[in-house]
Design brief:
two-stranded antiparallel sheet; 15 helices; 9 strands; 50% helix
Length: 291
């Protein structure tokens, strides 16, 4: 892609709307071959960006979902022990007694199970999404830093496997903890904030073209009001889309305070947040936005 504007246009063709800052960050990540570290609250479009990039580049999306305790075997590769055992038994049944030969056959590439990181190194082209890196521990961060520096991995039995063409890498963090500076310095950085009313409305209309314009405006206005409250989990754009889709599924072309309260489970996921929302004057919130 020749520049940020072309990146923006290609992403918008997939249905993903980007601002100038994000378009520039994506372009530099592609041009310089650097990972893009996306940080922000849940539901603001970080994961969706990786999917949109994959569509724009016509490349497969390979996703590694991080979690507490994740290790290299889960993320990089593992040996297919059941197949190795079957091969060993078949060789023994055939009368093969050469231990060195058997060992060499057991650790052949065909018995290696490629996990997401190795899949991304071997797939050309590809987009690698390392999702919620803040859920992993320090040891995995250090391992990941080394991998992203060289885009290669050493398998003791096979040698070094190196990417012929490094994947496009997107890392996301919900900032449940601080990710180490060493990893962030390896990446380009972009903070995902909650969008303005106008931008969020445009996203909802793009993602849900069948929803009435009035319903989309009302839901967006209500979500913007909820975010201004002291909630445990402020709703993201994903929840705005979910709420509008739920109301549309109920046959609503517009929403009033009573219907909004009835469907709060589509947008709020904590009891305390739901109770706080029910105490709000949602009718006044709708009126205040002129919707």
């Amino acid at each position: 892609m020749d520049g940020p504007e072309q990146v923006r246009a290609r992403l918008e063709e997939t249905g993903y709307l980007v601002d100038e800052g994000l378009a520039v960050a994506c372009y530099l990540a592609l041009r310089l071959g650097r990972p893009l570290f996306c940080e922000g609250d849940a539901g603001v479009g970080k994961t969706a960006l990786a999917s949109a990039l994959a569509q724009a580049l016509d490349a497969p999306l390979i996703r590694l979902q991080c979690h507490e305790g994740i290790d290299a075997a889960q993320a990089l590769y593992d040996w297919d022990f059941p197949r190795q055992l079957l091969h060993l038994r078949a060789a023994e049944a055939a009368g093969v007694r050469d231990a060195e030969r058997l060992e060499g056959e057991l650790y052949d590439r065909r018995f290696l199970l490629a996990r997401p990181l190795l899949q991304a190194l071997e797939t050309i082209p590809s987009v690698l999404l390392i999702d919620e890196i803040d859920r992993a521990d320090d040891e995995f961060e250090a391992f990941l830093l080394e991998l992203l520096s060289e885009f290669s991995v050493t398998v003791p039995e096979l040698g070094t496997l190196r990417a012929q063409e490094p994947p496009v890498v997107v890392l996301t963090s919900n900032r449940t903890r601080e990710v180490h500076d060493a990893l962030k310095r390896r990446c380009l950085y972009h903070w995902f904030d909650h969008p303005s009313f106008e931008r969020e409305l445009a996203i909802v209309r793009r993602r849900l073209p069948g929803v009435s314009a009035r319903l989309a405006e009302q839901v967006t206005a209500l979500v913007q009001t909820l975010r201004a409250q002291d909630l445990l989990k402020p709703p993201g754009v994903a929840e705005t889309i979910d709420w509008a889709a739920a109301l549309d599924a109920l046959g609503a072309s517009e929403v009033d305070a009573e219907l909004a309260v009835t469907t709060l489970g589509s947008v709020l996921k904590y009891r305390e947040d739901t109770e706080r929302a029910r105490r709000l004057d949602l009718a006044a919130a709708l009126a205040a936005h002129g919707r």
